Amino acid sequence: MPKPDRGEVWLVRFPFTDLTSTKLRPALVWVVHGEDVIVIGIFSRVPAGALRKTWVRIEAGHPVFSQTGLKKTSLLKAEKMAIVHESVFRKKLGRLPSDIMALVQEALKKALLIP
Questions:
Q1: Quick one: which of 66, 92, 100, 115 has the most CB atoms within 10 Å?
Q2: Distance CA 47, CA 61 (A)
Q3: Reading across the β-sheet that carries 55-58, which strands appear in turn?
Q4: Residue ranges of domains in the chain, CATH in brackets
Q5: pLDDT value of position 77
Q6: Considering Cα of 111, then 16, then 14, then 73, what sign does the dihedral take?
Q7: Do the Cβ atoms of 30 and 79 come closer than 8 Å?
């Protein structure tokens, strides 16, 4: 299996915050450190109305949405980060375009309280 790379979207056994279980879900690869990878969770439920400043909507109508590998408009939640071993990666779905990666970077700064 190929190694994950920054900007890619993968199906990952993503841990719950209480560490009791995992769920197979799409995640963005943010940083790769050897066999450990910092990922950010991507969720299919997009609430109506205003989004949190730490969330990035990935629109199905984006010109290169098909390259993401996602099936429908999704929500990346920058506060839902995890450090996982590469063994929890199941399948590469695609890649986020650079304009959305820039939005993710801004959302991460807000999630981590970086001015």
A1: 100
A2: 17
A3: 55-58, 74-85, 36-43, 22-33, 8-15, 89-95
A4: 8-111 (2.30.30.110)
A5: 97
A6: negative
A7: no
